[in-house]
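pinging the channel bc i need a second pair of eyes. not urgent but kinda urgent?? the chain im working w is below, pasted from the shared doc
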Amino acid sequence: TTPCSSVSAFVAMMDSKTAGENGALEHSDAGSPLVALFFKLVRSLPDDSLASLTAAVPAEPASLADLTVLAFQTRATRGMGKGEKDLFFKMLAALPVEAATATLHLVPHFGYWKDYLLMQGVAGIDAAVKDKALSLLADQLLKDAAELEAAEKEARTPNLTLAGKYAPREGSAFDGLAKRLSTHLFGNKNEAASARKYRKLVASLNRALLTTEVLMAANRWAEIEFARVSSLCLQRSRKAFLNEALKGKLAPAQEETGNRHPEDEQR
């Protein structure tokens, strides 16, 4: 069972309601440590309260699976969940190591790639989980590098993740992690050479991530610097840049938002 499971006892419990003091239906946490935990998961929750609430969850497979679901729902951004990064890290520390490592690949979907770096400094998260996080980041950097090379040979726009954008750099707050990744990827026999290869890999990915076509494909329109857009791309994608439909005319009320994706803030 993973956080993407379609059927969950936790979801069923969340739907259970009882009559409150004024007779109105409200969520009930009676008999459900998971539901009680859900409603307590706010930024101001003290660490000792979080520890006692998670400890109250039965140590059985179904309940632990639901606790994992709840951890990722707590982290989830973009309207999917509460967007609480620090609470997620603390819950990750409370999960069984097997559950944490088995679902760790979902972190960039519910949060972002930098979470793998930030969790390295969180006390309580098992070393195996932290190592797995860096390994996942390293693997994705290699996959993106291979995709970039293939796309260049095939003269197409590469389909890249944002792993390269958040990869640690030397001389940054994550300097030590950059060194670990460079030796993980390129070996430790010649650390200077490994560091050079790592810098080259990250730089090439970031150059590609800043190209207009890649930003458009990733729906990162707000990051496009139009001074750097080629005239040919500007001509071909004029309607897209203006957020206008290919056919039809704009209504007066659509002058500012466009009529292609008027509700999309990125556009």
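so The radius of gyration is 23 Å. and Confidence is low (pLDDT under 50) at residues 1-9, 25-31. — does that match what u expected or am i reading it wrong
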